[in-house]
Amino acid sequence: MKAVIGGKTKYGIAGCGAMGLPMARALLHEGFDVAGFDVRPVKEFGDFADRMIADASEFSSRCDVVICVVRDERQILDLCFDQQALFAVADCPKTFVLSSTVSPHVVMRLRQQLPGDVVLLDAPMSGAPPAAISATLTFMVGGDKSDFEKHLPAFQAMGEKIHHLGELGSGMTAKVLNNFVAASTVVAVRNVLKQADVLGFDQKILLEVMAKSSGQTWFGSNFDALDWSGEGHDPANTIGILEKDVRAFVDALPEGPEPLHEAVIDALRSLPKLEK
Prior knowledge:
This protein is an alpha/beta fold. It has helices spanning 20-29, 56-62, 73-80, 104-113, 128-133, 145-158, 170-198, 203-211, 218-221, 238-252, 259-269; strands spanning 10-14, 33-37, 65-68, 95-98, 119-122, 125-126, 137-142, 159-166. The chain folds into two domains: 5-167, NAD(P)-binding Rossmann-like Domain (Rossmann fold, 3-Layer(aba) Sandwich); 173-269, N-(1-d-carboxylethyl)-l-norvaline Dehydrogenase, domain 2 (Orthogonal Bundle).
C-alpha cells in the first residue's frame, strides 16, 4: 500500500511532450504533488527537470495516479506492460487515466489487461498545446462517476470544461468523433487557402472574413497562433497525429470507413508544407 505523503494523492504525467509537460506544470501550480516521466533525458525538461523521474519502476512505485499522454497504442502498451512496464511492479499505481487519443476498442482491451484493482478512466482532451499551457483544456471522461469525482479537482487544475460522459469508453468515443470534425476542418481550411492563392485572393484577409462568417472554424480562427497550422504531413508531427486520430475514429466504426473518412485521411497525407 502506498503511503500518501502529507495526505496528498501523488500524480504522475507519463509523456511530457507538448501536451503532457504543461499539464504537469498546471497541476504543480495548483498545489498537486506531481512527477513526470518520459523516455527523453531529464535535462531536456528545464525548470521541471527536478520533478522528472527517469526510472520507470521508481515512477510507478511513486505514483498513486498516472495520467497517460503518450502518442499511440504501441506507446501505451510499452508504458503499461512492455518496455517501461509500469504495471509489472507490485506497488503499481492504482488509477490509470488514459488521456492519449486512441480507438475506444483500445480502452476496452486495456481494461482487460490492467490488474483488476486498478481504476481506469478514459479522459482524452481537446484544445491543443495552447490550451494545455493556459490550463483551459476540455476533458471528455468515461468511467465510474465516483472515480471521476475523486479526481475532478485534478482535471479542473488542467482544464476549463470537464465533461463526464458516462461509462468507460464514452470519453474516447466523443474524442474520436470530435477529432474527425477537427481533421476535416484542417483539410478544408488548408484547401481554401491554397485556392485563394490560385485566385489571387489574400489568404490573411480570407481568414479574417471566415472568422466572422459561416466558414468559421477553430483551426481557421487560430491559424496564425498555431505553430503547426502550416505543417506538411509527417507521421511524427501534428498533422500525422491528426491522421492517427482519424484512423482511431475509423477503427471504432462497426461497418468500417465511408468514402468521406478515407478522403480526409488521403487529404491529410497529401498536405504539403505551407510557408506562413
